[in-house]
């Protein structure tokens, strides 16, 4: 998908179909936010610094996650990086410096903890986020990946949590999250050695879902997004909540939480539409009700 110049609001043809892609006005100088039907594509775009995190980027990310959560007709988000790189981690100077953009400065003052929200550490989106990685996704880049739900990585990509190697700490949440997502020994290997990890090794660890040829991560993520968007949106959101709300909860109590989330989905109009579509051998037309 080719994008137009980075302006506040723009429309152009989607590469996947005949619909129009909309550049949302919450975009910032370092973060493009585009709407393509039920899918929002968030692109970190600070190519001169290998998409290292900045105030402009974090505010854009925070606003994108809020937009995805608050718009019922958005069903999934994609996070990627421009210029063949995902994200090379934190740029502490750029993160501490105020933006030159007046709107971004105002939003940075208004959004509580926009750093943590942007990094997917707080106020997690209520819809799934798919990560599409090319090139470097290291330090804060890997922390962002750990905050997503599905992960597509190009075969020459480099991942890694370098913080301990530099006598730092992974403040994005990976010290807690990683061992909950992949086997403990693999998590400690990544966290304690601070070594770089290739795409195929990351897949063997269970850190990523798919490895694709270079240049194809976003296209494959877009296909996955269509698959997610075709599922019942109430079911998708409830499944995410069931996982998140039961971390560390004993099984008996977790099942009660799961039932409280699941029964309204079972009784929804979308569930009835799913049964009708299966009977009629046609695609379901879910409305989120």
List keywords for this structure.
2-enoyl-CoA Hydratase, Chain A, domain 1; alpha/beta; disordered N terminus; single chain; 8-stranded mixed beta sheet; 3-stranded mixed beta sheet; 11 strands; 289 residues; 16% strand
Task: Note down, in words, how this protein is organized.
By secondary structure, the protein is of the alpha/beta class. The protein has helices spanning 55-70, 92-96, 102-110, 114-118, 140-146, 174-181, 184-193, 199-205, 217-229, 233-245, 251-266, 269-280; strands spanning 10-13, 20-23, 31-36, 39-44, 76-81, 129-133, 136-138, 150-154, 158-160, 197-198, 210-212. It is globular. The protein starts with 9 loop residues before the first strand and ends in a 9-residue tail after the last helix. This is Crotonase/enoyl-CoA hydratase family protein. Belongs to the enoyl-CoA hydratase/isomerase family.
Q: Provide the CATH topology of the largest domain.
A: 2-enoyl-CoA Hydratase, Chain A, domain 1
Q: Radius of gyration in whole Å, from Cα?
A: 19 Å
Q: Give me the side-by-side strand order of the main sheet.
A: 1-2-3-4-5-6-8-11
Return residue spans where pLDDT drops below 50 for at least 5 consecutive residues: 1-18
Count all strands and give the number. 11
How does the major sheet shape up?
Answer: 8 strands, mixed
Overall spatial form: globular
Mean residue pLDDT: 92
Measured as a percent range, the helix fraction is: 40-55%
Element order, helices and strands? Answer: EEEEHEHHHEEHEEHHEHEHHHH
CATH architecture descriptor name of the largest domain:
Alpha-Beta Complex
CATH superfamily of the largest domain: 2-enoyl-CoA Hydratase, Chain A, domain 1
